[in-house]
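Researcher: Good morning. I'm working through a list of sequences from a screen, and I'd like to move beyond sequence-only analysis. For each chain I'm collecting a predicted structure so we can compare shapes side by side. This is the next one on the list. No need for commentary yet; just the structure.
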Amino acid sequence: MTTTPLIETAVATSPIHFISTFYKFKKDENPEQTKLFLEQTAEKLQVNGLIIIGHEGFNATVSANSENNLLLFKKQIRQYFTTPDLFFKDSVSNVAPFRRFKVKIREEIVTLGTPELAPYDQDGKNHHLTPAEWNQVMKNEEPVIIDTRNWYETKIGTFKGAVNPMTDQFTEFPQFLESQNIPKDKKILIFCTGGIRCEKGILEVQRQGYKNVYQLYGGILNYLKESPHDQFEGECFVFDHRVAVDQNMQPSQQYKLCPHCGQPGKTAVDCKRCDTHTYICEDCAELEWKQDTCSKNCAYQYKLHPDRKAPPQFSSFSERQSSSVENHDDDQETPTL
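Model: Good morning. Structure tokens for this chain:
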């Protein structure tokens, strides 16, 4: 029996986008020079995406319509940063995850509020568990499992039995951990979308006196490639136009980004002000002045003048998605990613 490769199947049905998520904590003395290199390379190879860089390293999700161009881009990344073993988490999609290419320079490439904590000396080996090892611990032991992501990410999917810190941003994680009073000898598992948040998160957990703590290598994205339909339930939120990926690493068919708040949502509405069809999240659907509108502007204007009509606020759904994606730029993790 022969099987059809994933990429060939996708190409046969719709345009394909090749996506890669990657990061590295590696000291960079000249982020401005790095920004210029990345912009020039992306333009040459027609690569879109978002890369966050700083003195502590880089954090990226990029995509290209050409598999060869993406391979060349990854080769350039390895050479420029001298990271021959850089781990790329790759996927394909029939939804374009990005409309443009952007590089942002930040103090932290994932914001915990502790720039002094960076795993330069760990060499990528700070208590990582492969997906198979992660499953072994989950199924045979009784660890405390902590989801380090934000609350709006956890609500559409997480690991069985995981603790949800209910944080709005990662900077709240240290305070959450302090408040839990977990015994210092308890085994703790932490996870995130693509791995980078846990690279800093585990340093904070260890700083608070925990020694028996482990992180999921490559995050949920790596886990779903190796162990779909196992210990992770639901879908994985990503910080791009796919909104989320399902158990087969395909773009979500359930969720869209809410135009009011940028959270994942699946409640269909026809805007009472401009008649635009869109999807909003369940939280906004409970608010009277948002539940029947397609944007912040329409919500505001409809509340003031419920009897007035207006032309559509967006020419296409992708424009609404772009507006919502921008809401998450400052706190994204992978950045997908």
